[in-house]
Amino acid sequence: MTYNSSLLRLLDERGYIHQMTDAEGLDALASKQVVPGYVGFDATASSLHVGNLVSIMLLRRLQQAGHKPVVLMGGGTTRIGDPTGKDEVRKMLSDEAIEANIASIRTAFERFLTFGDGPTDAVMVNNHDWLGQIGYIEMLQKVGTHFTVNRMLSFDSVKLRLEREQPMTFLEFNYMILQGYDFRHLSDTMGVRLQMGGSDQWGNIVNGVELARRMDGKEVFGLTTPLITKADGSKMGKSVSGAVWLNEDALSSYDYWQFWRNCDDRDVGKFLRLFTDLPLDEIARLEALEGGAINDAKVILANEATRLCRGEEAARAAEATAAQTFAGGGLGEDLPTVEVSAEGIRLGAACTALGFTASNGEAKRKIGEGAVKLDDALMDDPGMLITVPAGETRKLSLGKKKHGILKGA
């Protein structure tokens, strides 16, 4: 389909569109007025990760095309937990923890979006502000009558859990109703006309579209992105050592940069289109590079992605650290660092402290596999005591791509 609106042309050219509830209607609306559109994010941790990044970039593209991004933080729905793709009931968080997580997550959004009071400035809202006020009987009367249990049981988020014979609480079963109500509320109070999200949210988005029509007679729209996977088939958002967090206090800028630099050759073009602002003709040139030259494109991807998320200075520092560590054989200043007291630190504990491994048990396995080096010398004893004189440094490495500094305190 050929789109008339700059919004859908932009999203289509860069590979964001998977499904739309009414492509022609949304295209016509976006051609004639500012469209407020939202994506919802639950506040289950103090940082989002790169698995959330395509949705954040959707909001960025919305703003770049002259429309209004609305970031919906699930202060209310986080208290329930989205069952989509989950086999277990989510751990309950305190009100204080949820509020702290929202404040922390906002700092990442401020890198990608321009917030303010203007017609296309981004805003952040919290669904606890309205979900926390509505009464149970009122919710059943006003909203519950528009959902059939038959239809709810047909959605993948419910059906897959039941097929796996995993318990689903009545609390979780209500999640899709509350998410649908969010869309209806934002449409009614803020004029929001579009909800966006990943492909796994399609059923929830359609619920909201139908609820706004049934309760208010309003036409609203839904759009989902394709499932973003890496060339090896693994889910976007994870690295060998765990989640790739967006916030600096959860993951160093060097490790964030390295995630992009180490991507598969086959992913370079897709990631450049989705996660950077580089022009499409430049991306076409970069993804056509072959052999060792593709590494130049990966460095550009890492620089551009890190610059958006962490800032120009962080991107430059990470690139310099990588060059110094890998090309010069030295110790770059941006490497993860652990201070070592005069008593020293065991080799296995040092691997875990630097974030190379999730536990000392995993560290022991890696050391046994011959993957760990201290000052470029292969180590085989996880219990070996490492000492570092005050003011001096030693390099610890896991494989060829993970390096850290042990600094004498």
TrEMBL record:
Which superkingdom, per the lineage? Bacteria
Keyword terms of this UniProt record: Aminoacyl-tRNA synthetase, ATP-binding, Cytoplasm, Ligase, Nucleotide-binding, Protein biosynthesis, RNA-binding
Q: Where is this motif: 'HIGH' region?
A: 43-52
User: Molecular function (GO) terms listed?
Assistant: ATP binding; protein homodimerization activity; RNA binding; tyrosine-tRNA ligase activity
- Positions bound to ATP: K238
Matching Gene3D superfamilies, A to Z? HUPs, RNA-binding S4 domain, Tyrosyl-Transfer RNA Synthetase
Oligomeric state and interaction partners are given as: Homodimer.
**What does the protein in this record do?**
Catalyzes the attachment of tyrosine to tRNA(Tyr) in a two-step reaction: tyrosine is first activated by ATP to form Tyr-AMP and then transferred to the acceptor end of tRNA(Tyr).
What family does this chain come from, according to its entry? Answer: Belongs to the class-I aminoacyl-tRNA synthetase family. TyrS type 1 subfamily.
Q: What is this protein called?
A: Tyrosine--tRNA ligase
Q: Report the source organism.
A: Novosphingobium pentaromativorans US6-1
